[in-house]
Structure formats: C-alpha cells, structure tokens
C-alpha cells in the first residue's frame, strides 16, 4: 500500500482525512490513534457512517486504557456498540447506564437477572450497598439478598453517624 504524506499540523491532518478516499481510511485511523485526534476526526464524519463508528470504537478503547470507563461507555453507546458500552459501564459500576444499554440489547429475563447480580456484586465491592440492594430487588429478583444489602447499608450509615 502506498503511504500518503501528511502535514505536521493536526488541523491540516484532519482536513485531509475525508478527501483521501476510503482506501486510505485504515491509515488515517492509525494516524487518528497515534496523534489522539479522535474528537477532531469525529466531527468530519456523519454519525451514521462506518468511519464514525470505527473512530468511536477506537476512541472508546483509548478511554478504557486511560481508565475512563464511564466516558468510554458513553462513546460506545453513541455509536451503537452496545456490548462494548455495557462492558465499560459494568467496569465502573455505572448501573443506571448499564441497564439502559441492556435495554438496547433486548436481554432475556434470565440474562437481565444475571446482569443485575453482576452489577450488585460490583456495587457491593465499591461499598455502594444501597444501590446494590436496589439493583438486586428490581433487576435480579433476589429479595432476600436485597434485604440483607439494605440492612448492611443502614448499619454502615448508622456506624458513621
């Protein structure tokens, strides 16, 4: 593959990304990654294009490497990469966003219950016992464990007051 010559200015680089044609997009995507030009490049493509999705996925993966799970999940969700968004939201315990994305995935009742248990475990690790109890009660259909988590949450609250 013939390599294209690119100017040093990031603004100039972004301006030539679209006109070079789709055959150079993989090389352009590598440049976007190398120069951290995600935001600039996303402005150049329509949101429903495959290039926009590819850049968004690369950007989300970059954010995950930077331990920015919630913003990564939002980027993934915006481009329709719902499985990746769910994984990112699970990683940071962002249970409301995880459940919103799960609705887009049309999970079965059993899958949703499993997701609820996973989320509750992650929330309990983060000492968010009240949220864990809510998730268990409403999504995992585990009322006994929900009562236990609520009791634990109230005990912790009383201990610190």
Reconstruct the topology from this structure.
Elements: H1 10-17, H2 25-35, H3 38-42, H4 50-65, H5 69-78, H6 82-92, H7 95-104, H8 109-125, H9 129-140, H10 143-160
What is this entry, summarized?
With 161 residues, the chain is mostly helical. The chain has helices spanning 10-17, 25-35, 38-42, 50-65, 69-78, 82-92, 95-104, 109-125, 129-140, 143-160.
Protein architecture, described:
It is built from ten helices and no strands. The N terminus and C terminus are likely disordered. With 161 residues, the protein is an all-alpha fold. The radius of gyration is 21 Å and the shape is elongated. The termini are far apart.
Q: Can you give the mean pLDDT?
A: 80
How many strand elements? 0
* Oligomeric nature of the chains: single chain
Shape: elongated
Overall helicity:
over 70%
Percent strand equals: under 5%
In DSSP terms, counting alpha (H) and pi (I) runs of 4 or more, how many helices? 10
Radius of gyration: 21 Å
């Amino acid at each position: 593959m013939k390599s294209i010559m690119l100017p040093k200015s990031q603004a100039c680089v972004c301006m030539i990304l679209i006109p070079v044609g789709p055959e150079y997009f993989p090389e352009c995507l590598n440049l976007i990654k190398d120069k951290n030009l995600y935001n600039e490049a996303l402005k150049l493509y329509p949101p429903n294009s495959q290039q926009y999705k590819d850049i968004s996925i690369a950007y989300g993966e970059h954010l995950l490497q930077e331990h920015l799970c919630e913003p990564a999940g939002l980027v993934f969700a915006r481009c329709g990469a719902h499985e990746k968004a769910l994984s990112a939201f699970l990683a940071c315990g962002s249970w409301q966003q995880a459940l919103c994305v799960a609705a887009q995935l049309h999970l079965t009742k059993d899958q949703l219950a499993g997701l609820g248990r996973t989320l509750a475990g992650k929330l309990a690790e983060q000492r968010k016992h009240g949220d864990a109890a809510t998730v268990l009660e409403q999504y995992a259909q585990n009322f006994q464990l929900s009562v236990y988590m609520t009791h634990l949450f109230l005990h912790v609250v009383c201990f610190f007051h």
